[in-house]
Write a structure and sequence with these properties.
Protein name: DUF2490 domain-containing protein
Number of domains: 1
Organism: Mucilaginibacter pallidiroseus
Helix content: under 10%
Distance between the termini: 28 Å
Number of strands: 11
Radius of gyration: 18 Å
Shape: globular
Strand order of the largest sheet: 1-2-3-4-5-6-7-8-9-10-11
Pfam families: DUF2490
Order of helices and strands: HEEEEEEEEHEEE
CATH architecture: Beta Barrel
Amino acid sequence: MSIKKILRITALVTLVAPCKIWAQQNQFSGWGAIFHTQKFSDKWGISFDAQFRSANHFDYLRNILVRPSLNYYFDGNKMVALGYAYVTTNGRTNTGASTFRPESRIWEQLIINQKLGKGATLQHRFRLEQRFLGNTADNANDSYFAQRFRYFARAVIPFNGNAVFKQGPFVGLQDEIFFNVQNKDKVNQHFFDQNRAYLAFGYRLSPAFDIESGYMNQYTKQANSYTINHIIQLALYTRF
């Protein structure tokens, strides 16, 4: 897949998704994240990411996500992983009272990395999640289990055009689509869950460290409506 084609696809998803829901709810929030990968050998390693997500208009901290995994590498460009995630969701009722729901996830994934030429790379990620959502603070009987499938594609395109990208500015383009594959009636009553299109500008300080910031368009299907969340994200990537 060419870099021009990736740019066209990402732009199309970013522009078309919101057009469907201008009459629906719009939100504005900020996300911060750190992603770390640690290899112990050619075959084994671990990953860890932590994310912090605000509520609409940055009113309060809505989500904290902690997600470690054990990774196995093979065929030079592929990796499978088994991981766990803990997610907290804070909310507000119509009366302003605080709500809280914890969520635990077990997840499995396959990652395939591709080289696109001139230092650019494309990553495909296929993830299946088993979601155990706990009771909310005001309801002791609303816990449930659901499964969700996610497909993620991310391209990193350096400005310098070197065959091996070790340092310098880059563009990050990614898109992720989510599908509810079990107990969708417990989540939002739809097979399609959400789409996240993202455009970022970053700088690779060394082969082990990237920093980037960008705009994410999160398009979410709910039971009887659509929501689009305009997100400013700051992310750090470390690799050892």
